[in-house]
Design goal:
Rossmann fold; 22% helix; globular; Glucose Oxidase, domain 1; 10-stranded mixed beta sheet; 7-stranded mixed β-barrel; 34% strand; alpha/beta; 22 strands
């Protein structure tokens, strides 16, 4: 079969050439890089990657094929994938198909044979930016598509990927209670993390009012991961403010950012975000370091509430709990008076290390269920 040339054109005009190995067409999105060595199918189906083009820094992708068991959603949410080398064989007893076939079946545009080292350095030096990816068109058309693509700031993408109606997922273990989960773009593994611990999970849309959440009489409320800018999520932030102090709360990723805004902090765009399964995070209270799975482009800043180690909000003291050892960004917070906490990373992993799985058990303890 004749190879099809594919292009990735960044908004600043930089061009990367490769071989098209997925669906035909052109797509746009913010180009980012992920440093995970494995777990590519989980990454491509993570709703947090909505409207992004994912560059894998690991040089060889696809060697263990694909399986529905690894999918974190029914379909991929990223708009494109860039790789150095894609495997054309699959060596795993779990595999149900080749990655190239999965790309085509899912309608996902993907490029192989790209100089991903140069691309990663470019994004690291110049920041994540809009880009166009595709094949079968001219470089001029790709440049026009890249320069007209929107930036990530100001985009409430969580509202686009959230479920439309409340959905209940029942536990198959001995039932301990009910968690209401705000779906900002929640991965399947997060639901599993609660159901395996004996909780029914009542999933609700991202903009669900607090009163509707209380009607489910939950033992706790969970704020999920998700894509885009947290600041436009006014109704979500208002709902969390209304819930604070009335029910135990736990947030991760975008949920951490929503909680940070709800208590009076602010958020800001990171130059190229944190994407991968090898990010070191230190628990401030103990000094213990966990290697974490991360996928976000924004971070929380608590300086509107104070400075140093002392931050005060209308909900009581806000305690920074975790810090990223790569860039010293805030990775966790706690509001003791409101029984609320959050972390910026993914304790459920999938993919990634399991160093932080205990945070789900801690939340169960805070819910006071036996």
């Amino acid at each position: 079969m004749m190879e099809r040339e594919g292009l990735l054109v960044l908004a600043d005009g930089t061009v990367f050439r490769g071989v098209a190995v997925g669906a035909d067409g052109i797509a746009t999105g913010e180009v980012v890089f992920n440093t995970a060595m494995a777990g590519y199918q989980e990454i491509f189906t993570d709703p947090s990657y909505a409207r992004q083009i994912v560059t894998m820094t690991a040089p060889h992708i696809g060697n263990y094929g694909t399986t529905p068991d690894d999918a974190q959603a029914a379909n991929p949410f990223c708009t494109g994938v860039v790789m150095r080398s894609m495997s054309h064989t699959a060596s795993s007893w779990r595999s149900r198909g080749l990655l190239s076939d999965w790309f085509t079946d899912m309608g996902l545009i993907a490029l192989s044979d790209v100089d991903t080292r140069r691309l990663t350095r470019h994004v690291r030096d110049h920041g994540a930016m809009p880009a166009a990816i595709g094949s079968g068109t001219t470089e001029r058309e790709m440049r026009d598509a890249a320069t007209s693509a929107p930036v990530m700031e100001g985009r409430a993408l969580a509202l686009e990927v959230s479920i439309a109606q409340p959905t209940l997922v029942r536990t198959e273990a001995a039932r301990r209670g009910t968690v209401v989960a705000y779906d900002f773009g929640m991965k399947r593994a997060i639901v599993d993390a609660f159901t395996v611990r004996g909780f029914d999970v009542q999933i609700v849309p991202a903009d669900t009012p607090a009163g509707d959440v209380r009607a489910f009489n939950p033992d706790g409320v969970f704020l999920s991961n998700g894509p885009g800018d947290p600041e436009p999520l006014d109704r979500s932030v208002a709902a969390v403010r209304d819930l604070l102090g009335t029910v135990p709360l736990f947030g991760i990723c975008l949920g951490h950012q929503v909680l940070g805004l709800a208590v009076g902090g602010r958020t800001y765009k990171l130059p190229f975000g944190h994407h991968g399964g090898n990010h070191p995070v230190r628990r401030i209270a103990t000094g213990k370091v966990a290697i974490t799975s991360q996928n976000h482009g924004f971070a929380v800043d608590l300086t509107p509430l104070g400075s140093g180690d002392r931050y005060e909000s209308e909900f009581g003291e806000i305690v920074p709990t975790h810090v990223n050892l790569n860039d010293n960004t805030l990775e966790g917070l706690r509001c003791p008076d409101a029984n609320a906490s959050s972390v910026q990373y993914h304790p459920e992993a999938r993919p990634g290390p399991n160093d932080a799985q205990d945070l789900f058990d801690t939340f169960c303890d805070r819910m006071g269920v036996s």
